């Protein structure tokens, strides 16, 4: 299985750390990763495993999914200074990216649940960065959301591209193991197939237009789960949260990295 931290180390230090070697830095030390802003932490369990695999002793580690205040220590480890200097940059990058996803996800979930405590914020994981899917799925969960479509093999989602290959959906759609999700290209398709599918994902609709549509779809199929997708942001999520079951988005996967720093010292 692909490991992002190992791959990152191999990219960043393929033949050794020639600066630290030139300066003759050696002995024991410690590094601490510190937040320069309030955040929700993600990635620390994986970092702890990685540090220990490199013979570092982890002495402090913030639990994933918990908040950290500006100036707070996220994780601290002790060991050979030569190892610390090889690891700090890639680990800081990993931590800032994972925690940015968790933090932005938490903001969206909190905003939506102010309007609807039962709303599910769902992140489309097939849009995760290549090779980073498992890490980013954990960050999504640390932020309080759930993930949608880990792969093509675990969810049935009939998209507009599928419909271009068909005249219409088969009359009897059935899956024993999976719910059938449908993304209509227009309202006519939504109403036509409302009774045939389990989940209806309405993509790129305005909230004002969508609300009466959702009410009509529920009358046609009271068991239908209805989700909205397409351009949902922190500024717009409350507009939809009051009348749908799911809000599907991927923007949190591209959240701007947080401002973390790493301090290395001798011990």
TrEMBL record:
Start and end residues of each Quinolinate phosphoribosyl transferase N-terminal domain: 17-99
EC number: 2.4.2.19
The keyword Glycosyltransferase is assigned to this record: yes
Catalytic activity annotation: nicotinate beta-D-ribonucleotide + CO2 + diphosphate = quinolinate + 5-phospho-alpha-D-ribose 1-diphosphate + 2 H(+)
GO MF entries: nicotinate-nucleotide diphosphorylase (carboxylating) activity
Gene3D superfamilies: Aldolase class I, Quinolinate phosphoribosyl transferase, N-terminal domain
Broad EC category: transferase
Positions of the Quinolinate phosphoribosyl transferase C-terminal domain: 101-260
Keywords, in A-Z order: Glycosyltransferase, Transferase
Family (UniProt): Belongs to the NadC/ModD family.
PANTHER family: NICOTINATE-NUCLEOTIDE PYROPHOSPHORYLASE [CARBOXYLATING]
Protein name: Nicotinate-nucleotide pyrophosphorylase [carboxylating]
Gene name linked to the record: nadC
């Amino acid at each position: 299985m692909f490991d992002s931290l190992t791959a990152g180390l191999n990219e960043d230090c393929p033949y050794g750390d020639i600066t630290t070697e030139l300066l003759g830095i050696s002995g024991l030390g410690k590094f601490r990763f510190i937040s320069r802003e309030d955040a929700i932490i993600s990635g620390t369990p994986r970092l702890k495993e990685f540090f220990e695999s490199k013979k570092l002793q982890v002495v402090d580690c913030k639990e994933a999914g918990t908040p950290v205040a500006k100036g707070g220590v996220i994780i601290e480890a002790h060991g050979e200074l030569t190892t610390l200097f090889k690891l700090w940059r890639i680990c800081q990058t990993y931590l800032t990216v994972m925690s940015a996803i968790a933090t932005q996800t938490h903001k969206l979930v909190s905003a939506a649940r102010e309007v609807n405590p039962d709303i599910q914020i769902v992140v489309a994981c097939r849009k995760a960065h290549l090779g980073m899917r498992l890490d980013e799925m954990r960050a999504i969960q640390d932020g309080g959301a759930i993930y949608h479509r880990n792969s093509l093999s675990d969810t049935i989602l009939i998209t507009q591209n599928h419909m271009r290959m068909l005249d219409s959906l088969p009359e009897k759609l059935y899956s024993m193991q999976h719910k059938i999700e449908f993304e209509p290209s227009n309202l006519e398709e939504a109403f036509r197939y409302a009774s045939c599918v389990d989940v209806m994902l309405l993509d790129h609709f305005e909230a004002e237009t969508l609300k009466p549509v959702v009410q009509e779809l529920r009358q046609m199929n009271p068991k239908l789960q209805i989700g909205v997708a397409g351009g949902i942001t922190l500024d717009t999520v409350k507009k939809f949260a009051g009348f749908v079951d799911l809000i599907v988005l991927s923007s949190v996967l591209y959240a701007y990295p947080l401002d973390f720093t790493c301090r290395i010292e001798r011990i």
